[in-house]
Specification:
It comes from Triticum aestivum. The chain is α/β, with parallel strands linked by helices. The protein has 2 domains: about 170 residues, Rossmann fold (3-Layer(aba) Sandwich); about 150 residues, Glycogen Phosphorylase B (Rossmann fold). The protein is about 40% helix and about 15% strand. The protein has 15 helices and 12 strands. Helix 5 links the parallel strand 3 and strand 4. The protein is globular, with a radius of gyration of 22 Å.
Amino acid sequence: MAQGHLAPFRCLAALVRRCRPDARVTFVATSCTAQSLRAHLDDEGIAVHAIPFSPANASVRSFQRLIDLFLASESLRPAFHQFIVELRRSDPLADVHVVEDMFLAWTVDVARGDPDLTHSVLLTSSGYGSALYFSLWNSVPLVPNDDDDDCFILPSFPDISVHRSQLTNHLAAADGGDAWSTFIRRQIAAFSRADALLVNTAKKLEPKGLSMLRQWLHNVPIFPVGPLLRAARSALPEKATTTSPILAWLGKQPPGSPAADMNGSESPSSGLPGGFVERMEAAGRGLVVRCWAPQVEILAHPATGAFLTHCGWNSAQESLACGVPMVGWPLSAEQFYNAKLLAEEMGVCVELARGATAALTRDEVAEGRRRWRGCSARRLKCGPQRDERPRRCRR
């Protein structure tokens, strides 16, 4: 499981323990994920149970390998079922509730096999982004609008359209019989059989997104349980302290001056032109970090003036919580629809580009900066501004 999914689960576990100190939480995870979880847990009421999982080429970064990984995860069902059986046997009177990641639909079958078990799905992304993402994959093959070949209307949400640039190549090419479409439909079917859907958002933050989910899954109770965020003071592991060279560098910058650019927990470092880092650092214009960075601490720092983000939902919520305006460059999955939410619905983000292969010129970057400055100035003066144009497909 990627860090973008693990972090909300850790926060949810801590929330459960704060609200119900007598409750015991157990993470059931693969051996590799279990090791990562244990490194971040310091509550004796939260345990980790590891089950073996060794898919071939698990570390290869490609969409096909991702599909293979998720399909292989369905082989974990017998081990998970055995864990539940042993848990029930050890304490027959205990109330057991299973909370699954949204890509582990097979767990609902295990839960439905025991009438005393309850089962929820945790959506780690935004309500709006999740609704669009799953609705699009449930509607493949996608058919463009009659009036615009680059515009797609969602059958489930006819008042919302997406542009072709907001579709991954795999989504645009999907025919409904491909492996990922079939896998996603299994997850969607499981949603309707769950006892509840938990969403990493808040009612006041996403009234429209929650309304869309309830419209789409009208027979399932939906509860906003977010934002599931780490506090800045507890975001750093023991090995990283406030003496971090990153925070030390920020401390030397004027308030609101640098822009933070985080590539995401699962993204490899992007290639940079030869000599770029040396020239930039020699001029005192920036700092390049090629390892783990304390994102929440960076966003909370008074020097940070903007956040160039891939629009993953954890990062977006952290930026909102710290009051840092965003420049969006969504790369994959539901990030395009999180960006749509942040830019078009909330007015807290300016999209600079879309997709991992987008190439920007100096002039386009300058134009993005101009738009961001204008957006920030309007928000400081007037508060959130909605686009008054007709709700058509926006490029």
